[in-house]
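Ops channel
N.P.: pipeline sanity check, posting one input/output pair.
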């Protein structure tokens, strides 16, 4: 059974007062003055100093007992800083963990009772034990270069009190020196007070970053080894290599409505995305020039027909007119061909839908009055139930997309909907898109029973082959580094 520490009630009162003073300190400088000077009322010592090491080393001596402010250039302060750095390195290496007797003191400090004259107070309980314990040392515990100057600055015995918060962040430590050896009661009182100092210093320090928290979580020990092993195993877990690409629902096998002849579009009858039946007028070209040509051809045909009739009548009595009749017949046939061609062209001015579908084109105002050449595409006739997915995979994100790979479309207009598709074709070369990005055009057929509406735009996730997680994470950085370094 462990023997509990017996602590005087007056010491507990002083401990309570020093704790309150530390928590009420308005600044870090005031707290440092309280730590190195007012602690004398609780534990006797000759010299004390607070060494601040927010991380990483080397740190600095922030407060020295008996001085309003420490001078970094003073020989004593410089030697003291080297001593504290050596003690901090020893603490980080784990060599300042409590020994078996000190661990017993920690557990025993929380089990004592007290009558009216004396009171026992827990320095640390087993459940809320501090990760470190004060470490008593002498000149023999330091490197030879530092131990050689010990007698010039310090008495025989010293005590190092690490300041570490509950997250494991180190705020440095407080070092005390005196002639008498340090007792377990002194260590217990200072250990409890160190927890209060660390809590107060945490209020003045900036919040720990993610990198600092990760470094503290991965400090030496079994926990770090387990985390590293788990991370190494996670990096080799196979995951599907995916790429995101802009996509659009486009018509499959649409009918292209082209300009039947050269001219100017006079009027567009259909509206964008309008359902039209077969034979519905779509647009008309300006017929002014063709109507004039038709009138001239009609007049020429009538003239040729009259000349041929007169020549045929004269040819009955005159052989000369019989020869001229053949010439008039040729002109009549030529006029008839011109009239028929002009009439046919004039009939083609009005373009109708050859089949039912949805008219796919831009704003009608963009086409009214626009000059078009023969064969130029004006609009598409698409079947709303016969659609496909068109995605544009940037050349930098190409992951060896092959026909048969699965694709998932996430529409912009419906954040909770998704549609599955399967790749049919992949362009063999990348081409500039309307956005100016060089990309491969990918066509895919929807495999689900429900298909998205025509014209829906969104983002397509293309699923490639399976790769280790480390390759998935480092593929783009490695590709960029290789292009930049040229290897």
């Amino acid at each position: 059974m462990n023997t509990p520490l017996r602590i005087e009630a007056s010491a507990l009162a002083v401990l309570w007062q020093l704790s309150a003073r530390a928590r009420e300190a308005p600044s870090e400088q005031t707290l440092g003055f309280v730590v190195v000077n007012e602690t004398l009322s609780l534990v006797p010592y000759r010299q004390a100093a607070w060494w601040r090491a927010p991380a990483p080393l080397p740190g600095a001596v922030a407060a020295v007992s008996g001085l309003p402010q420490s001078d970094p250039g003073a020989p004593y302060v410089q030697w003291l800083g080297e001593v504290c750095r050596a003690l901090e390195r020893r603490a980080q290496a784990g060599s300042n963990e409590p020994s078996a007797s000190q661990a017993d003191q920690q557990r025993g400090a929380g089990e004592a009772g007290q009558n009216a004259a004396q009171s026992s107070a827990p320095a640390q309980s087993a459940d809320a034990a501090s990760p470190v314990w004060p470490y008593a040392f002498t000149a023999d515990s330091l490197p030879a270069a530092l131990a050689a100057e010990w007698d010039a600055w310090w008495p025989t015995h010293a005590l190092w009190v690490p300041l570490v918060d509950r997250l494991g962040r180190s705020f440095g430590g407080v070092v005390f020196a005196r002639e008498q050896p340090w007792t377990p009661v002194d260590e217990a009182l200072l250990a409890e007070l160190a927890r209060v100092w660390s809590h107060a210093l945490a209020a003045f320090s900036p919040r720990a970053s993610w990198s600092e928290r990760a470094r503290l979580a991965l400090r030496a020990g079994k926990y770090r080894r387990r985390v590293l092993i788990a991370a190494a195993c996670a990096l080799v877990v196979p995951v599907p290599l995916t790429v995101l690409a802009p996509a659009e629902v486009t018509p499959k096998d649409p009918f292209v409505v082209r300009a039947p002849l050269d001219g100017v579009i006079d009027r567009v009858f259909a509206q964008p995305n309008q359902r039209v039946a077969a034979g519905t007028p779509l647009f008309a070209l300006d017929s002014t020039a063709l109507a004039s040509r038709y009138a001239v051809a009609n007049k020429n045909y009538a003239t040729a027909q009259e000349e041929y009739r007169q020549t045929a009548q004269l040819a009955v009595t005159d052989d000369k007119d019989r020869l001229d009749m053949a010439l008039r017949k040729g002109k009549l046939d030529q006029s008839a061909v011109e009239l028929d061609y002009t009439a046919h062209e004039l009939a083609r001015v009005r373009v109708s839908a050859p089949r039912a579908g949805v008219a796919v084109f831009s704003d009608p105002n963009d086409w009214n009055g626009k000059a078009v050449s023969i064969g130029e595409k004006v609009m598409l006739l698409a079947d709303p139930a016969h659609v496909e997915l068109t995605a544009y995979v940037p050349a930098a994100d190409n992951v060896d997309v092959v026909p048969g790979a699965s694709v998932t479309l996430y529409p912009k207009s419906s954040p909770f909907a998704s549609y599955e598709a399967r790749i049919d074709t992949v362009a063999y070369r990348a081409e500039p898109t309307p956005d100016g990005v060089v990309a491969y055009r990918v066509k895919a057929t929807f495999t689900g029973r429900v298909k998205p509406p025509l014209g829906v735009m969104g983002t397509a996730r293309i699923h490639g082959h399976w790769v280790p997680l480390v390759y998935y994470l480092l593929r783009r950085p490695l590709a960029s580094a290789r292009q930049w370094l040229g290897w």
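N.P.: looks fine end to end. The chain has a mean pLDDT of 81.
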